[in-house]
Amino acid sequence: MAHYLIKRLGAALMTALLASLLVFLLVRAVPGDIVAQMLGQAGDDAAAERALRRFFGLDQPVWQQYLSWLGAVLQGDLGTSWTRGTPVTDMVLKAFGVTLQLGLFTLAFATLLGVPLGMLAGIYEGRWPDTLVQAFNLLALSAPVFWVGLMTLIGASLLFFWSPPLVYRPFAAAPTQNLQIMLLPVLSLGLLQAAAYSQFVRQAVVSALHQDYVRTAIAKGLRTRVVFFKHILRNILIPLVTFMGLILIQILGGVVIIESLFSLPGLGRLLLTAIQTRDFPVVQGGLLLIVGVAMAINLLVDVLYHVIDPRTRAS
Amino acid sequence: MGKGRRNAALGMAAGWVVAWLAWAPASAYGPPVDGAPLGGNLTIGSLVEPPALDPFHQAADARIAVSLLMYQGLMYEDPSGAAQPLLATGYEVSDDGLTYIFTVREGVTFHTGAAMTAADVKYSYDYIRNPDNGSPGARDFNAIDAIETPDATTVVFRLNRPNAALPMTLTNKYGAVVPAGYFDDDAARNRMNVESVGTGPFKLVSFQPNSLLGLARFEDYWEDGAPYLDEVTFLFMPNAASLLVALRNQRIDLAVLGRPQDSEQLAGVPGLEITRFPSLNHKTLDLDANHPVLSDVRVRQAISLAIDKDELMRAAIGDYGTTIGTIVAGMQDAWGLPLDQVPFQGPDIAAAKALLAEAGYADGVDLELATIIGYDWMDPAGATLAQQLSEVGITLGINKVELGVWISNFRSRQMGFTFNDWGTSPDPHLLFYRHYHKQPSGADFRNWNNDDASALLAQGQATADFAERQRIYKAFQEIFATSVPTVMLFSPDWVVVTTERVKNYVQHPTGWYFGLIRAYVE
Q1: pLDDT tens track for B4-21
Q2: Is the complex ipTM more than 0.90?
Q3: Are the C-beta atoms of B95 and B18 separated by less than 8 Å?
Q4: Is the pLDDT confidence value at B49 over 80?
Q5: What is the fold of B3-31+57-64+71-187?
Q6: What phi and psi, each to the nearest 5 degrees, are found at residue B261?
Q7: What is the mean pLDDT of residues B204-209?
């Protein structure tokens, strides 16, 4: 296990390094930079432009900019935001806190709703509960997230004369306000993921039901409950955990729209603004964090395999 | 200090023909309200967020809109078009127009607690006019040769050429008065996002990315009794739908709508008031004179003739604006060429077709229009323009461009054929010179390079007499409309939605939030 972990960590580090280079070059490949942004339509003075370029170190060759950035990153310093002047580490971690809360809440909601629905549909394959669940899945999967979000927002306002508070406060500081803010985004994002979940679980249950070991279990007279929880659920756990990891990554990567719709100061919105203002250190820091988190989740999922399924330990 | 002593101190031999300009104190920002209740807070919803709060290095309009609550210049851009004293109490001009003597207001305190003196004024304007300091506004101040401070309340601006727009330049768009030496520390400009160091009625409390900007009343503010509000909070909202919902549920008290027609969704909602104000913003169509097709003036004239501005405006913003000829709506009365005298105004399809045929495009021509992502009005306006131009044989493709890329193209003078959206301080020099005077003293983004127009713009800058200035700028506008570097389309109204508790908020025509300084809540 230790050997396996070291191997995986080494590969992860290489990936991170490659990602850092890619991220660094990508943001610079986009036309326009912070200097153009700051001077806008107003200033076209060459001296002013030179002065600002020097201030941000943009007058250095790109490889030199990369090396000095990488050097700082390796010492745990993501640099300073070019627009705000605050440390990038603080900005991205604070924003990531919001996104992570949204992601975990959504995952919990989607799991609690999607897994039972999927199992129900799988067990009653072809009968009316299955049809009902499938209809829900189809609807939720085909409705775009921004539309669902918009509808919940407008619906809550018109039906209940209520709209979420506009200033995000962390759960620890103001739990009620935090939950009020999180309600609609988690609902909008969670419905889609619950549908994806339930579709997946249904498929797994249906195919498990046709497996020999299930037929044997039923034939030898085990109670239905035992068959489901001990045999079927245990066997679909592996794909389920993989799926959970994928969904969490997907949620974290795709929250920009929801964060924008519901005024959440999360990582997606921070990145979007930073890209628009060409605040390179923030873009680089934020993307690096996302790469790191995605790799951590993948690693965690792999480790969980080992725990859940003894067969993978031998190989 | 008496005038005689002042002149002696400056060694001035020439007579001073321009009378001392005595202004009633506290006239900037509009009349104070007797008996306005003090205290309370006001929450503003805004779709745009300032990237930073630094008035010296950040050109973004969203920055200007809010930084003027914390930072002040010597003068105030009165909507009437005359600059009014703000941190100055008045000024006089030498008869050759090359020397301006400002008297600095006494009893003004910075947010840092220090008292403001003439030395701070000199430092601040010396800093911004030096291009090596990287300010987008530097070019506006390049008529200044030297700034002197003969005593603690007098600042003398010596110019290298007369500049009638100097008082309007010393307002609140670029730069402000900050404590002398503030920028000596390289990190100082970033600190402006953490604490304010200006003299304005509000000071910075909190500025959180993608969330809010919190300001609080500055207790030692120099104007007696102002401002009335204790706190002002800007909430940055990423989309119009959330903004409208927040207004409906009164989670915010005030919003200036980016899409004025959105106000129709709020009409009749109890507790909300909707008001329209005139604007100094305008939506334009820019034509790069280096473009292979647009370099022919006949093509540019044909495009101007093919456009039905009324139809275009209705498609873009409904009836919430005014179509314009050669100047923003808010300056038409004082400075504009009368609309019935503006040449090459459409729609006149036959004349446009004739000009195109003359230019060799009788069989039609393809053009590509750039629109900016996030500028909502450009999408419907682009579709309408394509339809209008097709009637004269121009096939229009539309290319949606991200703002950063667009600015980069614009600044490198490769704008091609594009919609544009900008505003101005209410002075024709500040509106026209930078954009349309040929290089190097102007920026001439459209590669217009027009000698006659540039000569008039230089004259306009040098002329102090109002009637003479009017004549000069009208002559400029005639050349402008004939040669068509830009088709000016329309000025949208500012549509302001407030809850009933908000009183006396008057929207400044620039779109900036000066109105909060005289607003109060009940």
Answers
A1: 444 444 444 343 434 334
A2: no
A3: yes
A4: yes
A5: Dipeptide-binding Protein; domain 1 (3.90.76)
A6: -70, -15
A7: 93
B100, B125 contact by CB (below 8 A): no
pLDDT of residue B504: 95
Helix spans in A75-127 (H): 88-123
Chain B interface, mutation test: which of A30, A34, A35, A41, most B Cβ atoms within 10 Å?
A41
- Residue A244's identity, in one-letter code, is M
From the CA of A6, how many Å to the nearest CA of chain B? Answer: 38
B138 to chain A: which residues are within 8 Å by CB?
43, 45, 47-48
The encoded tokens of residue A17 equal 């390094």
Pairwise CB contact (< 8 Å): A273 & B49: yes
CB contact under 8 A, B137 and A43: yes
pLDDT at B25 over 80: no
Nearest to B234 by CA among B498, B47, B380: B47
B378 vs B374: CA distance, rounded Å: 9
Q: What angle do CA B308, B310, B314 make, to 5 degrees?
A: 120
What is the signed CA dihedral for B202, B204, B208, B209, rounded to 10 degrees?
Answer: 80
Nearest to B132 among A43, A51, A263 (CB): A51
The domains of chain B are located at 3-31+57-64+71-187, 209-278+494-521, 281-492
For residue B250, the chain A residue with the least C-alpha distance is A163
For B295, the 3-state DSSP assignment is coil
Instruction: Determine contact: B414 vs chain A, CB below 8 A.
Output: no
CB contact under 8 A, B241 and A52: no
- Matching residue, tokens 């309009």: B61
Contacts of A46 in chain B (CB under 8 A): 131
Token pair of B178 as six digits: 């900050």
Residue B391 confidence (pLDDT): 96
Please report the number of interchain residue pairs, chain A to chain B, with beta-carbon separation below 8 angstroms: 164
Whether the CB of A84 is below 8 Å from some CB of chain B: the reply is yes
Q: What share of chain B is helix, strand, coil (3-state, %, to 5)?
A: 30, 25, 45
pLDDT band of A36, cuts 50, 70, 90: confident
- A306 vs B66, higher pLDDT: B66
Per-residue pLDDT tens over the stretch B279-306: 999 999 999 999 999 999 999 999 999 9
Inter-chain touch B210–A41, beta carbons under 8 Å = no
Query: What's the rounded Cα separation, in Å, for the pair B517 and A269?
Result: 31
Of the pLDDT bands very low, low, confident and very high (cuts 50, 70, 90), residue B235 is: very high
B209-278+494-521: CATH topology: D-Maltodextrin-Binding Protein; domain 2 (3.40.190)
Closest by Cβ to B138, choosing from A32, A45, A279? A45
* Other beta carbons within 10 Å of A230: 13
Q: Provide, as residue numbers in chain B, all residues whose Cβ is less than 8 Å from the Cβ of A160.
A: none
Contact B135 A265 (CB under 8 A): no
Fold of B281-492: Dipeptide-binding Protein; domain 3 (3.10.105)
How far, in Å, CA of B364 to CA of B394, rounded?
5
β-pairing, B321-323 with B486-492?
antiparallel
Tell whether the model's pLDDT for residue A284 goes beyond 50.
yes
